[in-house]
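Consortium newsletter contribution from the modelling node. Members have asked for a concrete example of what our holo predictions look like. Here is one, prepared for the alpha-D-galactopyranose complex that several groups have been discussing at recent meetings.
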Amino acid sequence: MSRVFGNLLLLGCATAIAAAPARAHEKDPLAPTARWSANTDGGAATPPMGWNSWNAFFTDVDEEKVLASAKVIVDTGLAAKGYRYVNLDEGWWDHRRADGRMLVRADKFPSARTADGATSFRPFTDRLHAMGLKAGLYSDLGRNTCAQAYGPNEVNLPRGSVAEREVGLYGHIEQDIRLYFGEWGFDYIKIDGCGLRAYGADSALVTSGRYRELPPILNLETVSLADIPRVRALFGDVKDALKRYATQDYLLSLCIWGSANVRAWGKDVGNLSRTSDDITPDWGRMLTNFDSAARRALYAHPGSWNDPDMLFVGKGDFDEHHLVEARSHFALWAMINAPLLIGSDLRTTPPVLMDIFGNAALIAVNQDAAGNQAVPVFDTDDLQIFVKTLSTGEKAVALFNRSSRPIEAQLTAQHLRFRPDAVVRLTDLWDGRSSSFTGETVLKVAPRETLVFRAAGTRALADGVYLSETPGDVNPAVDGVTAPQADPTIHRALSPWGGGTRGAGPRPIYAGWGGAQPDATPYGRELQMAGRRYPQGLGVLAGSRLEVRNHDYARLTATVGVDDSAADGATPVRFEVYGDGRLLAATRPLRRGATPAQLAVDTRGTRIVELVARAANAVGERLPVSWGDVALRH
Ligand code: GLA
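And here is the predicted structure:
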């Protein structure tokens, strides 16, 4: 009972192929699973907000400093606005006891002192909980930590013998997670990866006898040197332990700085995944961190967010003398659904910066329930325009001037996916002023400024959404990347770790090039098939499977084919659409240059739609495909 519709083979629901058995999926990663595989465990339906001790104090942290900042968060009303995590970063541990129990540095955290010397953070977390806040803690997935490796002159490093200074989770996941969550009552854990990276046999840390060897399975510079399955499995062990000992709204933050191709799988394991090395209070470094997350919108969803690192508003290029930069930094983080983790010493933060943290309109954008990370709709190294689709159907739009000269920018209704013949109303999210335009408007953006608005208009697609507008509902479960490559578009700042301009400078290191993209090919080109451009759509490599949450839409429409930019002009690609595991439609095999196929698929009653692009024996990187204008519609 199948019928041919244009280029498309449609299977009526009655005759649809039964759900693929689970085992089929083990052999065929493109077999439908009928489920949303990105992580939804834990308490991160919207990006976490709060405060972290690191940028303010590094390892020179103590109880008084943390609780004083917590008090400011409550007293100034920031807590009521959503800032609720108070996270203790590195610097809290004393040593690991012979029986494996971790001990707190009680001279710095006096409330942790116990009569038997076992120490307990419970009074500390009780205090935070009583203030209506939540408590976060830091650890490392290896035996040793970042400050032990890279900050030998830092204060408060663990003390004692080699074994006593092994304070990381390695070999102690069960015991530590039980202690931190079950006994001490923490809600949040940030887990670093230095212990998996810095303690190789030939490192001075090991040859000096200070630390035990752990053969590196992470490499920040070279993704091919990482043991990705092993790293992933270790984080999986942490997550399993959290399920046993944490309350249901625990938060797991992966901190391996975009290494080990974590872009592709971190979203399946944790609630946050760092996309780059540490931020510093420098404009260039902020650009690096922003770029590392800003072109990964499809890899962030409610429950699993891209993390370009904590806010550095309050220092250096983002202090009270640089309000343009400070506001840009905050607005950009809000737009891309980054966690809003304040990193300044709140005891001394001036009111003008507190006002930035407290901007309720921007917080609302960041915390919007739809969870759509902003998508770049205009992208240059000078000016960028990002648009984020809100749950109301309105848009938030940011115009970001990265350059050192003022820029006159045209914002068009098309950027917003609104009709060009209807009025668009803008509300400035800094001063609340409103304005309107039809078609396009010209906006002056000062050097380093980010203009940011809420925009209401008439949707160009009246009866539904383009999937590139709703990245929070699209999960590249398999993105077709066969050999992860560093993304060359990420700003390369001078190294924050010294070295000046000696050597050749930092190379591109953050894998992600070739990942699925909204409104662009995996390599950042406009979508184009058989000579025609598609301003909207999803670009992905062949050998891919996208999971899409369907919110009661009746049909999926798209124009699909191999993108004109494909190097491989010979291999045919078959496009398949599944609904809750059942094949709803498939195209004939399409090669580069062929007339694209029109899809119009009945999705009524379907929860998860899966979009598969299948090509036998193809190298995905040579075969970008385009789901042009792909939309869910009423
Ligand atoms: C790494 C992390 C930082 C911070 C330090 C602590 O560098 O990326 O965010 O946690 O470790 O040593």
